[in-house]
Write a structure and sequence with these properties.
Elements (H helix, E strand, L loop, with lengths): L1 E7 L1 H18 L5 E6 L15 E5 L4 H9 L19 H21 L5 E5 L3 E3 L5 H5 L8 E4 L8 E8 L3 H15 L11 H14 L4 E3 L6 H5 L14 E3 L19 H10 L3 E5 L5 H10 L5 E8 L6 H6 L9 H19 L2 E8 L2 H4 L8 E4 L5 H11 L4 E9 L13 H8 L3 E4 L11 E8 L26 H14 L13 E5 L7 H8 L4 E6 L3 H6 L6 E4 L27 E5 L4 H9 L3 E7 L33 E2 L5 H11 L4 E5 L24 E6 L2 E6 H15 L6 E4 L5 H8 L17
Parallel strand pairs: 1-2, 1-4, 2-3, 6-8, 10-11, 10-13, 11-12, 13-14, 17-18, 17-23, 18-19, 19-20, 20-21, 21-22, 23-26
Antiparallel strand pairs: 4-7, 5-9, 6-7, 14-16, 15-16, 24-25
Length: 762
């Protein structure tokens, strides 16, 4: 059995991955199988081929990979803020390959006594003709434990193809060591951090211990390389496949994150609802599909007219038009859009029609062509940009790509790239430069610009002009205070929370926001299968409304004597304590709270909030795997303790805690994250680090006043709402609040995606 595996992100799928998938779907024959791992996008938004021998898996569901990326995010090829990107030091980019390959190999080995071969194949590889398992039988030696493409005069092998024979133990051991190097952070101890370098080091060790290998290309010498004879082209698989070497591989260039600005096009489409759109620069058809999907939210028909050079593009034209994109064929894009057209009609009953016009728009774009909206992103020379604008400036709504601004260091692109800037700056029409942090290799930022040429067209809404605000929470007390709190609470608390089984009881969590509908909470509290949970700020109000909380979750490490976030003396929040309430106190809670509650006869249970403070020094900055950490020896905490994650405050940790206790259905009240509008004097107040104390944020056209602490909680909520792996049904209450608006805009608010019939909690 031959099991191939690959991985790609959204850009990779568009640039080369789609070709790999389409040619594999067309040319591969059963029982060959390809498992394609995708990451950081929704593959269902793309018309990828579906067939029995291709399976798609979301790499973001591998928790170890996510933990690695979050822990070592700064090691992305731009060490210590260097301007030049160095792929040799990009542990983040190459970790995707490692986790995809090892995940499938381990699964195959677990599921079968004869798992066959697990073969890595780079996603920029396409199949030229019919390909069967018999073709592999001809050159893969069944007695080999590992087959690869060696390179005599390189520090590491060509790793676009790696075949592991899983009937033997040593390939699995090598893969375990490879994954372990990333999980543990050991990869950062090597001279280079990409998978090829680490694989070569391990290969040397395993060969020395007797691993049987099949090296197809280790015989190639430097003369072969000078002649352009690459490793992949020199072994038998090249008869059936071609590996596309990127034009920038081996060069050190500034690393630019994936562009975010293109999502703004959909907002413009949704507002103006065009039925007919022109695009100069169709390229792979991605924008055509995105614009159609946005249009279909408000209408049932959409016509697209796309202009491009397609295969007529060449190096000379690329230089003239300042173009760095690869050429694509007219035939391939026509097929791609036809597939989308058929899919929309069959599945959504939407009508997508299109025209593709090949050639230079200086010749093919005619005066008077009609449309409701035009997107100008073709050639980038002054001549072509001006030509496209002149021919399309009668269209009511124009969107331009590549409006450039300087970055914080004053860097920007060369003058020859600024034709869009000149057009926008010189027009008397209404114009908008949309906010963007998309970087440019030469320095600066690139934006979309919108021009309205018809006075009857409504102004662009503020939603499109919004910029995300991000805050980085900081501990409210020094680290040594947390250590002292934890140490004392370990002696004060007798009972500690443990993990429970999933069940069908429901939980209502009441945070401290003012929007809570107390009558609604009261009705829910009367249901036998529902438990009421609160935080310390909402506890007195629940009691005042005659509602008995089952539990109160406390996280605050500050002493009782100080003022809370809401301006109340913390001690007053516990003036009345009901003996039937379980108080779940984090071990980092100030011991004065623990002592007071115990003195009042309260039931107290301890729990451990995940924190770097608890971790052993050697493990800090390493990823956390399966919610397990190595606790510092100074704390008497068992290694198998369940640590609660979830966010920056008690309300967010309460969600994580209740999930650990087995709840899967959640009603959230008081998760407002808003405050009344401050006075003009208060609006000028600053935090100690210079940040504004109060902030005005906007979601869609709704404005909210908030604080840094509350905004951090809102960000935690937004992250939760965007996760694909949440096995919970959530309902958020609280009209006209920040978190409710974030919830209403989220995808999962419209999907009930967790159903399980389980016994109620006893």
């Amino acid at each position: 059995m031959y099991n191939f595996v690959t991985s790609f992100n959204e850009e990779g799928l568009s640039v080369y991955g789609m070709k790999m998938l389409e040619t594999a779907a067309r040319n591969w024959k059963s029982p060959l199988k390809l498992t394609a791992y995708y990451h950081d996008f929704d593959i269902d938004k793309h018309d990828v081929p579906r067939c029995e021998h291709i399976e798609y898996r979301n790499l973001n569901l591998i928790t170890e990979m996510i933990a690695f990326r979050e822990t070592f995010a700064e090691h992305d090829g731009t060490e210590k803020g260097q301007i030049a990107y160095n792929f040799r030091l990009d542990a983040i980019k190459f970790c995707h390959k490692v986790f995809a390959l090892t995940e499938l190999a381990f699964e195959l080995a677990d599921e079968s006594r004869d798992p066959g071969w697990c073969i890595w194949l780079d996603a920029d590889t396409f199949t030229k003709k019919e390909f069967t398992s018999k073709d592999l039988d001809k050159f893969l030696n069944p007695k080999s434990e590992l087959s690869f493409l060696g390179r005599k005069h390189f520090d590491y092998s060509e790793t676009s193809f790696l075949a592991f024979n899983l009937k033997y133990r040593s390939p699995l051991d090598l893969l375990g060591d490879l994954r372990g190097a990333y999980n543990s952070g050991e990869v950062l101890n090597y001279r280079e951090w990409h998978d090829g370098f680490i694989f070569e080091r391990l290969l040397t060790i395993y060969r020395a211990h007797g691993m049987r290998v099949q090296d197809f290309t280790g015989h190639l010498d430097i003369k072969d390389m000078v002649k352009g004879k690459q490793a992949f082209e020199s072994f038998p698989l090249s008869e059936f496949m071609e590996h596309l070497k990127g034009t920038r591989k081996g060069k050190e260039v500034k690393q630019i994150p994936p562009a975010q600005r293109y999502g703004q096009i959909a907002h413009v489409i949704r507002q103006y609802k065009p039925a007919r759109v022109i695009e100069t620069g169709t390229w792979i058809g991605q924008r055509a599909i995105e614009m159609a999907l946005a249009s279909f939210e408000n209408r049932d028909d959409f016509h697209y007219i796309g202009y491009d050079l397609f295969e007529d593009g060449n190096e000379e034209l690329n230089i003239k038009e300042l173009n760095a994109k690869k050429t694509v064929t007219f035939k391939d894009i026509k097929k791609h859009l036809t597939t989308f057209k058929d899919k929309m009609k069959k599945e959504k009953n939407k009508t997508f029609t299109f025209e593709l016009i090949k050639g230079d728009t200086n010749e093919t774009l005619k005066e008077g062509v009609e449309a409701d909206l035009a997107y100008i992103d073709g050639g980038h020379s002054t001549e072509t940009v001006q030509n496209d604008y002149d021919k399309l400036k009668h269209i009511p709504v124009l969107i331009f790509d590549d409006f450039f601004t300087a970055d914080k260091d004053g860097n920007c692109v060369e003058e020859k790239f600024l034709e869009v800037n000149r057009i926008i700056d010189n027009t008397d029409n209404r114009k908008y430069v949309l906010p963007s942090s998309d970087g440019v290799r030469e320095g600066g930022h690139t934006h979309l610009a919108v021009m309205l040429t018809n006075d009857s067209i409504e102004d662009l809404t503020t939603k499109v002009m919004q910029v995300p605000i991000h805050v980085t929470p900081k501990d409210c007390v020094p680290d040594e205070n947390l250590v002292g709190n934890i140490t004392k609470n370990l002696n004060l608390m007798d009972n500690w929370l443990e993990k429970g089984r999933a069940h069908s009881d429901k939980v209502v969590i009441v945070s401290g926001g003012a929007s809570t509908d107390w009558e609604h909470v009261k009705r829910l509290s009367r249901k036998k299968d529902t438990r009421i949970i609160c935080v310390k700020h909402s506890y007195p109000t629940l009691l005042a409304n005659g509602i008995q909380p089952w539990a109160c979750v406390i996280l605050d490490p500050r002493p009782l004597s100080g003022k809370s976030t809401h301006g109340l003396i913390r001690k007053t929040l516990f003036k009345k304590v009901d003996s039937d309430t379980i108080f779940f106190l984090a071990s980092m809670t100030n011991p004065s709270v623990t002592r007071l509650l115990k003195k009042k006869g309260a039931t107290v249970w301890g729990w451990h909030a995940f924190s770097e403070t608890l971790r052993s020094e050697k493990d800090k900055k390493k990823p956390v795997l399966d919610n397990t950490i190595h606790v510092a020896e100074k704390f008497d905490i068992p290694s198998d303790t369940t640590f609660i994650t979830g966010g920056t405050c008690a309300a967010m940790r309460a969600i994580g805690m209740m999930h650990v206790l087995g709840f899967r259905t959640f009603d959230l009240f008081g998760y407002d994250c808003v405050i009344p509008e401050p006075s003009e004097k208060d609006k000028k107040k600053k935090e100690k680090d210079g940040r504004p104390k109060f902030m005005n944020v906007t979601v869609d056209d709704n404005k909210f006043w908030t604080t840094g602490e509350l905004l951090a909680m809102a960000q935690d909520c937004e992250k939760l709402f965007e996760r694909d792996d949440v096995d919970m049904d959530i309902t958020v209450h609280g009209e006209n609040t920040l978190v409710k608006k974030l919830w209403d805009n989220s995808r999962i608010s419209k999907i009930k995606h967790y159903k399980e019939f389980l016994p109620c909690l006893e």
